[in-house]
Specification:
By secondary structure, this protein is mainly β. The chain is built from four helices and 45 strands. The strands form five sheets. It has a 24-stranded antiparallel beta barrel. Strands 1, 3, 6, 7, 8, 9, 12, 13 and 14 form a nine-stranded mixed β-sheet that branches. It has a five-stranded mixed β-sheet with strand order 2-4-5-11-10, with no helix packed on it. Strand 36 and strand 37 form a beta hairpin. The radius of gyration is 29 Å and the shape is globular.
């Protein structure tokens, strides 16, 4: 009988956690001052959401009474208001690092998740840190949290002797909901106690279930509100001052506007008129010795914000828009390029995106780039001419994504690039599916993509993939296979270079779902992978790997991995010639990582790795080490040093055309080389307050490949000495980048940015191994390019303007 009495409260608690909690909102007519004090009388009569439970690491554990959290919700005809009181038994230990928007650093956090349709598909998430820093994102189970999405709302956090409080006003224009008279919203509240690395939610998010957005509670009581006109104008003005050796210093003034318009309660139109991306982060360029181009991150906000629909099926690589020209100019004898185009100018772009209440997501993106010329000079006559390297080009993406049962989707995607005149056009169509059982226990996912290229020679190709996985519990597994034909080519608006193969892969893993005496988290993975050339059947890749990742109860993170490549493989890409391959020896790779607790003022990241092969003298090793120090809540510095070395690396350096008269095939030249890379990066942040930050980013990079012996690739994939080739194909690339910026969010949605940037880079065939020379050689006025810029954008809400006009009238 005692056992029954003992277990009864536990059973009642577990049953209650499995139910959706309900909170009643309250309509108000009083004005609410967003000052973080919650001192208006109307707050006293509002219903309270409390009894938070842990999300991570000990899922389902009730929050201690000493950290009690109480939330209240009010609303009027314009906005919803959230008041949050976070008790803390030791307020002096509340972490409150001031950071940039959407980057909370080391600080306690409060958040509210809102789904106006209550359909389990998508949350709009709003966060405020104990340092009064805002963050917001869109959350979907398929894509996680997308912090590139930004809304305009007001908040204030205040520290007290009992903990801290937050007051938030979210205008309806920042949300999506139907026009029904009585609203029921999905809602959840979030609290992170940073010093303990513990995360809590109001409605339990059960980590055994493979979904996040379907586990909201309910907000009731909102009645007779209407979705407002969502029209936002963001005019901007920028000034750029450019200086470099050998050119006259000049200034440039730019102006334009971004527009956001809510077509209805589900869909939004975004457009940029006369775009300006001059203050986006610099690209981390490297010495690229491989057969494919370097892939860069997207830093332009228009192409990152709210683009989860466009990323379905990995068919859209936005850096193609406004990137390098698609063709190279044709040079005659004695001609050279004197003005080479690095990037094509974007004329304008727009996108329409959203999702209906019945789960149909629609995404349309269109962009136009201008006709672009390269300038060519005859070195004998001195005459110049211009040649089109990129015509007027239209880029278009269409996505139709139907979700059903709140956890599954089928998506149709089409990307199209149309170039004016006789230049190459491209059209890719894909069908993508992500299917989950009702209980989110198993997943079946995959896609089929078809590419059609209209060029001098038309071609078409297919990419298909299928995978099956168990997605819940301590033990999980997945299996899958890909099939890609030789002529599949999505690279006009996507990025993919590995073709003409099929593969098979599998994964089994074990994880703990709740902490133990030693670990907060623990996961071990076992993977197998085999890839074959589609035409010859030869092995292109094979490996067996095991990796362990864990975090201790002291919030230090550790990882260890081991990958064994048991068979020789055949690389069909490095020779850069059709049907040719080079044999890659068997190898073993071991890696590790350590990341100490960021809550402490000093923390360290360390990532060593080493690769052994069964070819004498051929190996690789490297590491990166990153100490970071938080001097106080305003100042943080992070430094990272990276070193990598490849000994006796074998790689392509040249090819010699076939001689038809002598019936000799194309000669492909490789080199036996050592490749060494150094990189130093320094980043810093000084926050004057939650709206003003000064940021520093410095990167020095140097990598060189020193060829020791030239080799000829044989038809059977082996390499033999080739003394007849004597051309110098050593490579040395070094670069320097510095960004020093000031950012001030002077009003909701409005920002003033000041940036000083200098950069320099150089590529040489002669290697100077003095590290100092490769740094100082760039730090002078002969090499450096300087840019100083000021940019201001101002947020205009149509509703606010309309209300002001009415009041004056």
């Amino acid at each position: 009988m005692k056992k029954i009495v003992f277990y009864l409260p536990l059973l009642i608690t577990l049953w209650s956690y499995g139910q959706k909690k309900v909170l009643q909102s309250q309509f108000i007519t009083e004005n609410i001052s967003i000052d973080g004090k919650l001192d208006e009388p109307v707050w006293n009569s509002a219903a309270i959401a409390t009894n938070f439970v842990m999300y991570q690491p000990d899922n389902g554990k009730p929050i201690p009474e000493t950290q009690k959290t109480e939330i209240k919700v009010l609303y009027n005809n314009d906005a919803i208001y959230i008041g949050a009181l976070m008790h803390d038994n030791d307020p002096n230990k509340i972490l409150k690092e001031i950071s940039q928007r959407d980057n909370f650093g080391t600080a306690d956090l409060f958040g509210v998740f809102i789904n106006g349709f209550n359909d389990g598909q998508q949350n709009f998430e709003f966060f405020v840190s104990a340092a009064d820093v805002q963050g917001d994102c869109i959350m979907t189970d398929a894509n996680g949290e997308d912090y590139s999405w930004d809304a305009v709302w007001i908040s204030k956090a205040t520290l007290t002797d009992k903990g801290w409080t937050v007051e938030i006003k979210i205008p309806y224009a920042a949300l999506r909901f139907s026009a029904e008279d009585k609203q029921t919203w999905g809602i959840n509240f979030f609290r992170e106690i940073k010093r303990d690395r513990q995360k809590y939610t109001w409605n339990l998010i059960d980590t055994k279930i493979g979904t996040f957005t379907q586990q909201n509670g309910l907000l009731e009581g909102i009645e007779n509100i209407k979705p407002p006109t969502r029209l936002f104008l963001m005019p901007y003005a920028s000034f750029y001052l450019n200086a470099a050796d050998g050119q006259k210093t000049y200034g440039t003034i730019k102006g334009g506007m971004d527009i956001k318009y809510g077509i209805n309660d589900a869909f939004t139109l975004d457009a940029i008129l006369i775009p300006d991306f001059g203050q986006t982060k610099y690209d981390d360029q490297i010495l690229n010795l491989g057969p494919f181009e370097q892939q860069f991150n997207e830093n332009r906000s228009f192409f990152t914000e709210g683009t989860d629909l466009f990323n379905k099926g990995n068919m859209f690589y936005s850096r193609r828009i406004g990137g390098r020209p698609s063709t190279e100019p044709t040079l005659n004898d004695n001609e050279e390029i004197i003005e080479e185009v690095q990037n094509v100018n974007l004329i304008n772009a727009l996108k329409v995106s959203g999702r209906t209440k019945k789960g149909l997501g629609v995404g349309i993106l269109n962009a136009v780039t201008e006709k672009t010329f390269a300038t060519i000079k005859d070195t004998i006559s001195g005459e110049t001419r211009r040649e089109v390297v990129e015509p007027l080009t239209n880029y278009n993406v269409l996505v139709l994504d139907q979700r059903f049962r709140k956890n599954s989707s089928v998506t149709l995607i089409n990307t199209n690039v149309t170039r004016n005149g006789n230049f190459r056009d491209a059209n890719i169509t894909g069908l993508v599916w992500d299917l989950n059982t009702k209980a989110n226990t198993y997943n079946l996912s995959g896609n089929v993509k078809y590419s059609l290229i209209n060029d001098t020679t038309d071609k078409s190709g297919v990419f298909s993939t299928l995978s099956f996985a168990e997605t819940t519990g301590n033990y999980r597994y997945s299996v899958g296979s890909d099939f890609v034909t030789k002529d599949f080519d999505p690279n006009d608006l996507g990025i993919n270079f590995y073709t003409n193969y099929y593969n098979f892969y599998g994964n089994g893993n074990y994880r703990i779902l709740n902490p133990t005496k030693l670990f907060n988290t623990f996961k071990i993975d076992y993977n197998m992978y085999a890839e074959f050339n589609k035409e010859s059947g030869k092995i292109q890749e094979n490996n067996i790997s095991t990796e362990i990742n864990l975090s201790t109860v002291k919030n230090n993170y550790y990882g260890l991995g081991f990958t064994f490549f048991p068979l020789q493989s055949n690389d069909y890409y490095e020779p850069r010639a059709e049907n040719r391959y080079v044999i890659i020896p068997r190898k073993i790779e071991v890696w590790g990582n350590i990341s100490t607790n960021y809550n402490k003022k000093f923390a360290l990241d360390l990532n060593p790795s080493i690769i052994f092969t069964d070819e004498a003298g051929r190996m690789a090793y490297g590491f990166d080490i990153g100490p970071r120090y938080r001097f106080n809540d305003k100042l943080l510095l992070t430094y990272t040093f990276t070193y990598n070395r490849k000994n006796n690396n074998k790689g392509y350096i040249d090819s010699i055309d076939a001689d038809d008269n002598k019936n000799t095939p194309e000669t492909i030249v490789f080199a036996n080389r050592n490749v060494i890379t150094y990189s130093n990066t320094l980043s810093g942040k000084y926050a004057l307050n939650s709206a003003m930050t000064i940021n520093l980013a410095v990167r020095q990079y140097w990598s060189f490949a020193e060829n020791k012996e030239n080799l000829e690739l044989q038809q059977n994939g082996t390499l033999t000495a080739y003394a007849a080739y004597t051309e110098n194909k050593n490579s040395s690339f070094y670069s320097w980048n510095t960004d020093l910026s000031y950012s001030w969010w002077f009003a909701p949605g409005s920002q003033l940015s000041v940036l000083y940037r200098n950069n320099a880079s150089n590529f040489e065939r002669i290697i100077d191994k003095e590290f100092k020379h490769n740094v100082t050689g760039l730090l002078n006025n002969d090499a450096l390019k300087h840019i100083f810029s000021i940019s201001m954008k101002y947020f205009i809400d149509y509703n606010a303007v309309k209300n002001k006009v009415r009041k004056r009238a």
